[in-house]
Each structure stands twice: as structure tokens, then as C-alpha cells.
């Protein structure tokens, strides 16, 4: 059995992508559209045709997630980090919620009455190796004088808070400072000169207010991207907000290709927005000095058929779930959003390292706040079928594993 040893690599070196990484041929190879003016409906139709081809090309390859496509040091040919299983381990968690006052109420399951604690006692075991245990002091020492930033939605904030708690548990008396704002919040470990930040940008691309309406600008990222410059480690995520509609939708109009509309195919929109992000990274980030990660889509657990396998169940959400799913394969259809992310990142000049937490997180139906969230009223807690949070994750909990994998990919 291979064991990831403790030999670290210099922070400012970047492993080149593997030889002959899979690439998609340009769409012009398959479709020729002569130069002409298209109406907005014709443009959307062409976008759908092109996008469906991307999904077909993505589906034609193995649906196994991309595990290492550049930028990482871990030899994943010997140790595929994201294929494995959950092992019960009494030495977990590595910190207690009561010792980390940073945890937001919506993630603090123990404070808000979760009666079980076994969900805290699992560690991720890759199939062919052991992950190094997270060491907060080592993280600070190796990152001395550097900046880490998570960029994305509330799942990115979930991970950001987890990482701070994991580090803080190793240096509880260290001098720290918190600058909390919107969209940027930064936690500083002053003795080490290490900044760990979260920048809220659920779509990554910009949203602008025009005439009192929020316009999602799929081909503009300049406003959001300004604070990302001169950061040593950037970890991006997006996904959930692209599907929201009604009162949960974060925009009123969407702009693409010079046209503004009230809606469009959401996967096409995600693809366009991600291409804008990828072009910004390729044009503005020096990957010899900056590490770029992209966190894959975090799954939800609102569909009990994913884990009941046809058995009779009265459950309608993750409420009451206390153990992970068994096995190591993704139960069901792999998300189309991840196919889009895979396709865009494969075509980058310097592909981001995909921290592929989708499958291992899908197995953790037990790890959500459910009704044990400070964001819920007593009345909402009494109605778990309609109020349970099966999107975010308890802290301590699953995001600590995301950060253990992040730590492994960063230093080993």
C-alpha cells in the first residue's frame, strides 16, 4: 500500500499537465456557421446545438471524474485521491465546534441541537494509500507570508470556515484578526503573515445593477476579479446558483453575446460564464507562482431514492440520516454541471487542479445540517420535509475532508 510521505515541494513550483491530456476539438471542426447576423433566438439555438455537442463529447469519455489535470504535486497515478471509501475513525474530528467561534450558525449543528455525533467520526480513505493527517502548524509554516482565497458561493464559505478552524485548533493562542465584509472577508494569522480569505461570487462572473435590475454578465468578470490578483493560492467553486429560479434566483436579466434576456438554458449559461473565468485565469494568472484549484460541485441530498435503492422509506430529505452510504461509486447520474466544468477546464492553457469532492461528498447523506441550523426558526425545525438544509454541511464535518485533500494536493 502506498503512503503519501511527508516530503513537501516548494510552493512556487507547478507540475505541468500530463502528456497528451484529453482535449475537445474546436466546435468549428464540426460546425461551420458563415458570417451573418443572428437573431437572439437563432443565437440561443446555435448555443444549444454547440453545448449539446460538448455534453456528448464529454459523455463519450469515461464518466470517472478528472483527478489531476495540472497544477498538483501528488502522484495520483499511484494514489487517486478521490476514489476510495469512508472509514470510521474515533480520532476524528480534529477540532470541536465549541473551540472555533468563527463557525456560522447555519453550519454549527452541535450548537443547534443535533443529537448524534457519529457523523464526525469518519475519515476519507483513498483506495491505494493513506492521506497525511492535516497539520495546521505545518500549513502556516509552509504558507508563511502568503495569501489563500476561496472564491464562490456559500459552499466555498463552508470550506473557508472549516480551514480556519482546522488551522486555529493547532495554534489556539496565536495572534489573529478577522476582517468580515461582503463580498470579501479575511482571517489573518498575524504571527505567520498568512491570510485566509473568502470572496463571495456565486457565479464567478459579474452581476451589475442596471435600472434597478440585476444583470448577470456572462462575459464580464473584471469587477469580481480585481481582489483575486496577487493571491498565492486561489480555490474557486460555482454550481448551485446556476439552477436557482424564482425567489432564489440571484439575477433578473442575463447578458450574453451582446444580448440581454430574461432567461436562457442554464447549462449553456454556466458554460459561457466558466469560459469567461478560464480565459481570465489563462490571461492574468502566472501559474508558476500562483496555485489554482477548482472545487467540483458539492451534491445535495433531497432525493432519497439516491440511497434507498427502491426500498420503502418515509423519508423525504436528509433529515434523520446518521451514516454514510456504502461503496465508492457515484449513485445515479453524474451531474451535467460537472461535465461542463470538466470540458472547460480541459481546454485551459494551464488547467486548474480539480479538487474533485463530488462523489465522496455524495456518499455523505448524513453530514448536512438538516434541521440543526441556526438559520431555522422553531416552526421550520418542526417541519423537516420542507425546511431541512441538505445542501450545506455541518462543521466540524465533511468540509474538513475537503481541506485535508486540499492540503495534500498543495504540499505533497
Automatic annotation (TrEMBL):
Top-level taxon in the UniProt lineage: Eukaryota
Record's protein name: Uncharacterized protein
Source species of the chain: Arctium lappa (Greater burdock)
Lineage, top ranks: Eukaryota, Viridiplantae, Streptophyta, Embryophyta, Tracheophyta
Amino acid at each position: 500500500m502506498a503512503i503519501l510521505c511527508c516530503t513537501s515541494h516548494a510552493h512556487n513550483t507547478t507540475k505541468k499537465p500530463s502528456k497528451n491530456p484529453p482535449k475537445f476539438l474546436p466546435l468549428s471542426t464540426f460546425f461551420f456557421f458563415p458570417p451573418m447576423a443572428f437573431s437572439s433566438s437563432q443565437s440561443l439555438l446555435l448555443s444549444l446545438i454547440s453545448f449539446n455537442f460538448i455534453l456528448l463529447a464529454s459523455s463519450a469519455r469515461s464518466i470517472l471524474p478528472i483527478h489531476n489535470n495540472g497544477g498538483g504535486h501528488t502522484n495520483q497515478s499511484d494514489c487517486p485521491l478521490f476514489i476510495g471509501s469512508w472509514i470510521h475513525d474515533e480520532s476524528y474530528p480534529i477540532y470541536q465546534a465549541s473551540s472555533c467561534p468563527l463557525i456560522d450558525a447555519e453550519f454549527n449543528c452541535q450548537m443547534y441541537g443535533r443529537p448524534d455525533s457519529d457523523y464526525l467520526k469518519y475519515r476519507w480513505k483513498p483506495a491505494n494509500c493513506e492521506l497525511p493527517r492535516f497539520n495546521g502548524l505545518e500549513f502556516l509554516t509552509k504558507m508563511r507570508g502568503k495569501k489563500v482565497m476561496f472564491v464562490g458561493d456559500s459552499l466555498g464559505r463552508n470550506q473557508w470556515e472549516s480551514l480556519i478552524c482546522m488551522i486555529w485548533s493547532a495554534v489556539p493562542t496565536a495572534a489573529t484578526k478577522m476582517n468580515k465584509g461582503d463580498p470579501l472577508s479575511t482571517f489573518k494569522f498575524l504571527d505567520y503573515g498568512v491570510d485566509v480569505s473568502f470572496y463571495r461570487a456565486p457565479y464567478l462572473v459579474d452581476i451589475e445593477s442596471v435600472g434597478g435590475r440585476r444583470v448577470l454578465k456572462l462575459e464580464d468578470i473584471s469587477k469580481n476579479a480585481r481582489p483575486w490578483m496577487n493571491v498565492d493560492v486561489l480555490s474557486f467553486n460555482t454550481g448551485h446558483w446556476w439552477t436557482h429560479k424564482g425567489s432564489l434566483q440571484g439575477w433578473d436579466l442575463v447578458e450574453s453575446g451582446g444580448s440581454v434576456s430574461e432567461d436562457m438554458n442554464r447549462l449553456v449559461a454556466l458554460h459561457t460564464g466558466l469560459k469567461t473565468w478560464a480565459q481570465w485565469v489563462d490571461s492574468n494568472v502566472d501559474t508558476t507562482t500562483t496555485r489554482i484549484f477548482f472545487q467540483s460541485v458539492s451534491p445535495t441530498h433531497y432525493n432519497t431514492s439516491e440511497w434507498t435503492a427502491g426500498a420503502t422509506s418515509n423519508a423525504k430529505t436528509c433529515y434523520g440520516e446518521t451514516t454514510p452510504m456504502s461503496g465508492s461509486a457515484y449513485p445515479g447520474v453524474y451531474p451535467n454541471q460537472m461535465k461542463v466544468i470538466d470540458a472547460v477546464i480541459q481546454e485551459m492553457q494551464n488547467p486548474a487542479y480539480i479538487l474533485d469532492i463530488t462523489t465522496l461528498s455524495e456518499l455523505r447523506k448524513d453530514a448536512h445540517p438538516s434541521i440543526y441550523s441556526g438559520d431555522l426558526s422553531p416552526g421550520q425545525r418542526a417541519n423537516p420535509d420542507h425546511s431541512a438544509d441538505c445542501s450545506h454541511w455541518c462543521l466540524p464535518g465533511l468540509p474538513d475532508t475537503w481541506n485535508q485533500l486540499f492540503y495534500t494536493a498543495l504540499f505533497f
